[in-house]
Amino acid sequence: MHPKTPNSGKTQNSAELVQLRQGRVAANTSAPDTLPERNPGMPFDVRFLDALRRVNLSGLERRASTLTKRRSIKGDNQAAWLLRSLALMDLTTLNSNDTDERVRRLCAKALNPLSRDLRQGLGLGDTVIRPAAVCVYHPFVATAAHALRGSGVEVAAVSTAFPHGLAPLETRIREIELSVAAGATEIDVVIKRGLVFAGRWEELFEEVQAFRQACGDAHLKVILGTGDLATLRNVGLASMVAMMAGADFIKTSTGKESVNATLPVGLVMVRAIRAYHEATGIRIGFKPAGGISTAKASLDWLVLIKEELGREWLEPDLFRFGASSLLTDIERQLEHHLTGRYSAGYRHAMA
Ligand SMILES: O=C[C@H](O)COP(=O)(O)O
């Protein structure tokens, strides 16, 4: 049910977590032998945080820079990986000037992301390749749900007073409930960054638990706003708290911070995911978001995930890109792959 993670030589941190988990299971005779696929969360356990307080910044930066240089993906192989980037995308519009009409056009693009010429040239035949989800603000959830019904493309809503998360807790929870009622099957919540700065981990845990409960069957993605969190240590700790509280995915950024998804931040988060998996057997998804606009950048992220978590994580239930303009560059690169020429970006306008 939970195959062993490839390439996961246990770190000291995760080994500590495994010991903690074993202690917890041994003390609880009713603990299940097999764990369910969806993250059920666990009681708040500060020892899970203690194991993550050390961060080797220069080691992470070195790893991030060598990871992307070691592999060069070319030709047909590159086209195949770009199609995977497309299938792993939450095609997003989160603008102040969004309208129902704009969202309808984005949904039409999600249903038919590649031109007939591209599909024929790539020999896709009847294979359906679409983004995993369309991601919108709450007022457009019903419109997106209507446009995408029956397609298998999920509707994701950003909730909890996106992007700052500073409304009262009751208001944030109500927003989730309304989005689910309107047809959202995935909810992207933002955390209150102040809880991280103040080290109020249990309070953060309780808020995320409340979000998870409000989601019901909708999957919960927890946005950390990593560019706001000041240190990579905070990123690791907030990741672990979100997972303990029941997050199905942890997500880097809103796209509205001054620094969004970066590879060193991604490394900290995926290593927290790996540690949580080794300790609990539960696989948590990862969503880098914000500023990922080139096909090349998407390939860097795929390499990072394959190297750190293994191929099994490169599926829509465990990995997503949050991106508003990445699809345009993927189309241009695929066209270049077929014709040797680049077309202008406006020819692939999305909305
Ligand atoms: O969650 C998704 C992000 O808001 C998208 O950010 P982006 O517009 O920089 O691609």
UniProtKB/TrEMBL annotation:
Pfam families to which the protein is assigned, alphabetical: DeoC
Protein name: Deoxyribose-phosphate aldolase
UniProt keyword Lyase present: yes
Gene3D superfamilies: Aldolase class I (3.20.20.70)
One GO location term (cellular component): cytoplasm
Reactions catalysed, as given in the entry: 2-deoxy-D-ribose 5-phosphate = D-glyceraldehyde 3-phosphate + acetaldehyde
GO molecular function: deoxyribose-phosphate aldolase activity
EC number: 4.1.2.4
Keyword Calcium (UniProt): no
Gene Ontology BP terms: carbohydrate catabolic process; deoxyribonucleotide catabolic process
Provenance organism: Tianweitania sediminis
Family listed: Belongs to the DeoC/FbaB aldolase family. DeoC type 2 subfamily.
Pathways per UniProt: Carbohydrate degradation; 2-deoxy-D-ribose 1-phosphate degradation; D-glyceraldehyde 3-phosphate and acetaldehyde from 2-deoxy-alpha-D-ribose 1-phosphate: step 2/2
EC main group: lyase
Domain of life: Bacteria
Entry keywords, A to Z: Lyase, Schiff base
InterPro entries registered for this protein in UniProt: Aldolase_TIM, DeoC, DeoC/FbaB/LacD_aldolase
